[in-house]
Design a protein that fits this description.
By secondary structure, the protein is of the alpha/beta class. The protein contains eleven helices and 24 strands. The strands form six sheets. The chain has an eight-stranded mixed beta sheet with strand order 6-7-5-15-16-17-14-21, with helices on both faces.
């Protein structure tokens, strides 16, 4: 039974789900919380340590309606988060028959969920341009012909790294304890004599932390840390940045997020005039022989390669082509601009795109909180509340059922995407240079 003095370890506490969990524990008055991560908040290897993420309603699973509404309310009203929500709106659009069918299905799903009033169907080029005037230039390139769209008035984007940093500052005010570098890097569990109960964890430097509960919320790294029985597959997606001139910044300021499922998506420029562009594809894996804690021998696991540790890594040559294709179609006037900050962002897919948030069935008091499936950053203000409910035994039944331990429920390598991920071993162009020292980076960040 938990009480406010119970010791709780949150591994991956510098990322999205982990920092949110620590935040809600602290807000409920828990006094013995320790956040552990390879890097300080916002963790340099968290998918949430990013320029921006899409904000908006997404209904892939039955519980998503509740979570989307909770997230919208928190981003709009919680002072820790409000400054980082940019309500630019969001346009989902497509011109292919399959893409248009997906848009029609999305509208039907929103209507069935009682949210049809929150979106507008755009049936013509003129209607799309009315909502996103910055796309008018596409007419010169004959790119908009036949496109349909959905406009989300309440959508937009989130200043991701800044929001997690805001959480970190609140955690400091609450007196939460932190361990970074080797002393925050998960190594193994400390188990009871019968091997059935988790009593804490040991980190890379040999530190032993005893705790009443251990939460493993290490994002894409979680499947390589403990045995998840292939329920999650770590995958990378790619992005690049462009620098706009002062006149271009004025033109694109306030532009809605534009997402095309056949091509990719882009955001309005940030305060420094930087636009992030992403292509759209099923992701990349990085399979290797690896032995997570709890497996009797090494097995094939998709193991992320940290951009923080390998800062000269970029993305495969094939991604340069698809990023440029997205720019040529969505931002043709910028097709000759120089790209920079080419990188991969690692997430963890589940087969059904539901989160995996539950107690590990082999080890009592170990809780996993992962399986973001590339769509969970918007839950930063609220997902930790539900993790705390799980720890306290009060999580509502439909969430518990959706996020349960469920090996054999499908293929996480494909998930609900168009095709299985390609493996980076088969793709040239992304791997460069020696690794950086995370210990030195953690020290310099904390100074």
């Amino acid at each position: 039974m938990l009480d406010l003095n119970s010791g709780i370890l949150v591994f991956g506490g510098g990322g999205t789900i982990g920092s949110s969990t620590a935040l809600h524990l602290a807000r409920k008055g828990y006094r013995n919380i320790r956040v552990l991560d390879v890097y300080p908040i916002p963790s340099a290897q968290s998918a949430g340590n990013d320029l921006n993420k899409i904000m908006g309603t997404s209904l892939r699973n039955p519980v998503d309606r509740q979570l989307s509404l909770e997230a919208e309310d928190a981003w709009s009203n919680d002072p820790t988060f409000t400054a980082y929500y940019h309500r630019s709106g969001r346009l989902d659009c497509c011109g292919s028959p399959d893409g248009i069918e997906d848009l029609e299905n999305t509208i039907a799903t929103l209507k069935d969920a009682g949210l049809g009033h929150t979106v507008e169907w755009l049936d013509t080029e003129a209607q799309i341009i009315r909502r996103v005037p910055q796309l008018a230039g596409l007419l010169l390139y004959d790119e908009l012909k036949g496109w349909k769209g959905i406009f989300f008035e309440q959508g937009g984007w989130l200043a991701a790294a800044k929001a997690i940093d805001s959480v970190g500052r609140e955690l400091v005010r609450h007196g939460v304890q932190f361990s970074f570098g080797d002393s925050g890097t998960f190594q193994s569990l400390i188990l009871s004599n019968d091997g059935k109960t988790c009593l804490g964890a040991t980190t890379k430097d040999g530190t032993r932390y005893i705790a009443d509960r251990v939460v493993l919320a290490s994002g894409a790294w979680t499947p390589s840390l403990v045995d998840l029985e292939d329920q999650c597959c770590s995958k990378a997606w790619v992005y690049a940045h462009m620098q706009l001139t002062s006149e271009e910044i004025k033109e694109y300021a306030g532009c809605p997020v534009v997402y095309n499922e056949d091509l990719g998506f882009f955001f309005e420029p940030d305060e420094h005039g930087i636009i992030k562009v992403c292509d759209e594809f099923p992701g990349f894996t990085r399979y290797k022989m690896h032995q997570p804690f709890g497996t009797p021998e090494p097995k094939l696991v998709s193991v992320p390669r940290s951009h923080a540790r390998h800062p000269t890594d970029t993305y495969p040559d094939a991604s340069e082509n698809t990023i440029n294709k997205a720019i040529a179609a969505l931002l043709p006037k910028f097709k000759d601009k120089e790209l920079f900050n080419r990188a991969m962002c690692w997430c963890a897919d589940t087969a059904d795109a539901n989160l995996l948030i539950c107690e590990h069935p082999r080890w009592k008091n170990l809780f996993v909180a992962t399986g973001d499936s590339g769509h969970s950053f918007k839950l930063l203000p609220i997902i930790g509340k539900h993790v705390v409910e799980l720890l306290e035994g009060t999580l509502q039944e439909d969430l518990r059922e959706s996020w349960r331990w469920r090996p054999g429920s499908g293929d996480a390598r494909k998930s609900r995407r168009a095709a299985p991920a390609e493996d980076l071993a088969d793709l040239p162009g992304w791997k460069h240079g020696p690794a950086a020292d995370p210990k030195a980076q953690a020290k310099s960040t904390m100074q």
